[in-house]
UniProtKB/TrEMBL annotation:
<dbReference type="Pfam" id="PF08348">
    <property type="entry name" value="PAS_6"/>
</dbReference>
<dbReference type="InterPro" id="IPR035965">
    <property type="entry name" value="PAS-like_dom_sf"/>
</dbReference>
<dbReference type="InterPro" id="IPR000700">
    <property type="entry name" value="PAS-assoc_C"/>
</dbReference>
<feature type="domain" description="PAC">
    <location>
        <begin position="5"/>
        <end position="57"/>
    </location>
</feature>
<dbReference type="InterPro" id="IPR013559">
    <property type="entry name" value="YheO"/>
</dbReference>
<protein>
    <submittedName>
        <fullName>YheO protein</fullName>
    </submittedName>
</protein>
Length: 99
């Protein structure tokens, strides 16, 4: 099946011995536009993937985004303000509109 594209780029493959490759395949066409050859380029990224996993395990706290990072409050007033904002987010209404 020839869909007219130029190839596939940046997909992951794995070797028989478990190495992880970032692969790209470019289609080389003849004068009629049919695919005559394939040019494949594979980059072994196994060490990068392992490093990424290691760094992620050190940095990841299980919190999805920076919005879930807890703020350290320094006063009761600041704590109450933060609690009210949390309630407003939870309920979906500003404090003055709650009854």
């Amino acid at each position: 099946h020839d869909d007219g594209s130029e190839g596939r780029f940046g997909y992951l493959t794995k070797t028989k011995d478990g190495r992880i490759l970032k692969s790209s395949t470019m289609y080389i066409r003849d004068d009629t536009g049919r695919i005559a050859y394939l040019l494949g380029i594979n980059q072994d990224i196994t060490e990068f993937v392992l490093m990424h996993r290691l760094l992620d395990s050190l940095v990841n706290t299980g919190q999805e985004d920076a919005g879930s990072v807890e703020k350290i409050t320094t006063s009761v007033s600041e704590l109450l303000d933060d609690l009210l904002l949390d309630v407003e987010r939870l309920v979906g209404k500003p404090g003055p509109l709650m009854n």
